[in-house]
Amino acid sequence: MDKLFVYLDGGARGEPGEAGIGIAMTDADGGVVEEISRLIGRSTTEVAEYRALIEGCRSALAYKPETVIFFTDNQRLANHVNGVFETREPHIKRLVEIAVGLLNQFPQWRVNYIDAKVNVRAPRLVEQAFHRTIKAQMTRERLELLLLARTAALSEPSLEKLVNYAERLEEEES
Q1: Which DSSP letter does residue 107 get?
Q2: Domain that holds residue 85
Q3: What is the pTM of this model?
Q4: What is the CATH classification number for the domain harbouring 80?
Q5: Measuring CA to CA, which residue among 31, 114, 106, 103 is closest to residue 71?
């Protein structure tokens, strides 16, 4: 592959809070090569942005592009990685070191700042990661309520059978 374009975003629900990353990779013709949308645990938005760059680098390396151009709507991240200025924050400094180490594995690379209005695909992928998790939580809560409602009318012997069955299921999953 000659050229790869990688759009990045990271976000958190709270500062810090549950965080996610979104990465959209396209080829020179604008065709989607790969999309990544996932939660990364508890973090700040700033750390999530750097983690998106790191994950974007790791994924892009598999395609062996001659040139890779990363796009972010975080000007601070672009400035740090491009060496325009350094950070005093040790945890951010470490993330920059990891990112630059990965970037230097590409023959040619750039990290460009773009306006948030242009970087639309990556933020949507971050939102998708949050929505999938919320949907899974809602499904689980609905099932738990349904189980509670169904067990309310059961006799004690039937409840004992149900508890025994649940214990066997737990053992199988372990």
Answers
A1: S
A2: 3-133
A3: 0.78
A4: 3.30.420.10
A5: 114
